Amino acid sequence: MVQPATLRHVEPQPRRTASGRTGAVPADVALWLLDSGGPQVDIAIPVYNEEADLEASVTRLHAYLSTELPFSFRITVADNASTDGTWAIARRLERELPGVTAVHLDQKGRGRALRHVWTRSDAAVLAYMDVDLSTDLAAVLPLVAPLLSGHSDMAIGTRLARGSRVVRGAKREVISRCYNFLLHATLSAKFSDAQCGFKAIRADRARALLPLVQDTGWFFDTELLFFAERAGMRIHEVPVDWVDDPDSRVDLASTAVDDLRGIARLVRGLLTGSLPLATLLESGSAEQAVQARPGLIAQLARFSAVGVVSTVAYVALFIVLRTGLPALGANALALLLTAVANTAVNRRVTFGVRSRTARLRHQLQGIVVFAVGLALTSGALAVLHDVAPHASRALEVGVLVTAGIVATALRFVAFRSWVFRGASPRPPSPSRPDLPSSMPRSSP
């Protein structure tokens, strides 16, 4: 086994930008970060059999950081058991470029590599990016600056936000959007892009979260984001310019399967209460953040209770209205009335949103969700009448209840991932997340 190389310290130095001016460290950078004893930023690049691109990418990144980043840095190349010449190139780059370190692991796995490097790093901020440098390097400073100033705990590049410029094929675009939608629907995630290989985290926050993360592969950073959000940590999002690498080595099929397994594991942990979320409640701010947003189990219970009442009211209204209206008209009116009430009650009871802010928008979005339910139930009625033109009222009600169950499940997903996504349960607290006692607070 090749022993990991000793991590070197790169002394902070004034850096000259491309315009010729010296880039001084911003005045609002926390002093404890400046005096952390290591580089301010450690950027890990996990690689596996990347002998064709490694040298050019690291050389380009090193040149950019040396001239444009006003912080001391280290680039750590983490070789994941490569079988080609990647490790030899990494060792040569370590000898030739100041501030470049090479680390070798005998096992594959991006998450395994990041955990290995980050737990041993003495830097104040830990980051990583893909070796293909698909993300424009101009986003590096916006990524790490909020962490070094103490404003945020974690930062991610996002290709799905306004201001992002993305060049990639339709297949990857659809997969990315579907994956993030699934995270929002199942885990109530608020971050917009979990898969972008461009993230950073404060070292003290990483030390608290890494013991909770189980995945050693591609799901690693999604799981890290999940726990960071559950802890009430501030996650800063940076819109990026991103160009797809046509020679990407990622196996989309196996990665998708592993990601689905990771999501299922977290959902199962939420349902059974086996996730170690209690360890995240060390500060009052984290506890308030978790308590302010009902968990999945509580939301399901409350939504189900509201749904039972709504279904009873819907069926009763349909029976009453059916005496003077045709079936489709009675169904539409009954569903509309109960949908408005259902949205209002779920807004307050299920998702804990009590402020008046965006109440009208939530109702309008609820109407859109209602339209989906109307299409399902009306379609079911139409099929019933086509098959059995003289169906009894009891059969009509049975078909509507069955279609309504499907519509209810879709409504819950839509409420979590779209209507009430990001809604504040309470007015935002003016206080900032608590910092460990050894870290001075920045002035407001």
CATH topology of the largest domain: Spore Coat Polysaccharide Biosynthesis Protein SpsA, Chain A
Helix share bin: 40-55%
Please tally the β strands and state the result.
11
Strand order, biggest sheet?
5-4-3-6-9-7-10
Distance from N terminus to C terminus (CA atoms, Å) equals 50 Å
Our Rg estimate from Cα atoms comes to 26 Å
How many domains is the backbone divided into?
2
Q: What is the architecture of the largest domain at the second tier of CATH?
A: Alpha-Beta Complex
Supply the CATH class of the largest domain.
Alpha Beta
How many helical elements?
14
Strand content: 5-15%
- The helix/strand order is EEHEHEHEHEHEEHEHHEEHHHHHH
Residue runs with pLDDT of under 50 for 5 or more positions = 1-32, 281-293, 426-444
Q: Please identify which CATH superfamily of the largest domain we are dealing with.
A: Spore Coat Polysaccharide Biosynthesis Protein SpsA, Chain A
Q: What can be said about the biggest beta sheet?
A: 7 strands, mixed
In terms of quaternary structure, the protein is single chain
| Average residue pLDDT | 79
Given helix and strand content, the structural type is alpha/beta
Basic shape:
elongated
